[in-house]
Amino acid sequence: MRGRRRAAILGGMLLCAEAVGAAEAKPPYDAILEASDAAPKDRAVQERALAQIDARIAALPTDALNHYVRGRILSRFGRDRDALQAYEEALRWDSNLADAHYNAGVVLTRMDRMREAALRFDRALEMDPRADAAYNAGLAYYNLKDFERSLERFNRARELAPADFSTAKKVMQAQLALGREEDAWRTRNDVIGLWRASQDPAVRNLREYVLDQFEVGTFHVLVFENLAPAEDLAYIYTFRVFGPDEKPVGSVQLETSAVIRELGTPYLMGISRGAGHQQAGFGFKTLPKYSEVKAIAQKLIAERLSP
Fold this sequence. Notes:
It is a single chain. The protein folds into two domains: about 5-160, Alpha Horseshoe (Serine Threonine Protein Phosphatase 5, Tetratricopeptide repeat), CATH 1.25.40.10; about 210-305, no CATH class. About 55% of the residues lie in helices and about 15% in strands. The chain is α+β, with helices and mostly antiparallel strands. It has a six-stranded antiparallel β-sheet. It has helices at about 5-10, 30-40, 45-60, 65-75, 80-95, 100-110, 115-125, 130-145, 145-160, 165-175, 180-195, 200-205, 260, 290-305; strands at about 210-215, 220-225, 235-240, 250-255, 265-275, 275-285. The two termini are about 35 Å apart. The protein is elongated, with a radius of gyration of 24 Å.
């Protein structure tokens, strides 16, 4: 998730009523959250922060931001239901608190309540246009298989963060889910360009990325495109197959190698299961369209990787 505290929401809202030019006072809720953020895995720090914000709520029960901060701290304890209740209480006192909607969406996602999560991210996006809200809304709709809305939200995230590699990749995945391969391949070229231009080591050091994902029966399939094919045996696309328990079952590859090219059919489909690997009986003289490879991979997965 891309949850984060926004200074525009939590900082600088309550100003010290002193003479002009005096320093701003840090609101108590802000100082408490700052301490919590500084040591998110330190239970003693979190327990102290929770006790402090509970005391603030006892003194000022109608202050929305106190309840919001309580939700953030409770999330760190894994108390998602209590955190959600705290965000709801924050919104009862300030229905326009964008971060409360956003973080309620984060909690609802963890609780697998995707429809509600999507609506919360949408509400946060409406009140405070930010790429992470649009991105997370897109993820929620994608998980609901509402690919039209997913694409709309990912496109909105891309408008707000045009240089973000992950967002461009998600736009492409939603386009493929909708069968819009020409659009997806234009986006795919952007994805490759963003990878090459990225200054982020986590992006630039990638050697493959998830191009597509789909289901075949009870299998979940992640499709990886190789960003840096080897000189010899190289997989162009790898369809990694996972069972309902998310354990790997096997894979299907579009592959090439020096030997394969010398034999006159530069691209072959292969299939792997356990330590075994074999040719699958499909070859191509030229690099085929992804949709053609995908159709063959789906057939091979259904016929040869099923129990």
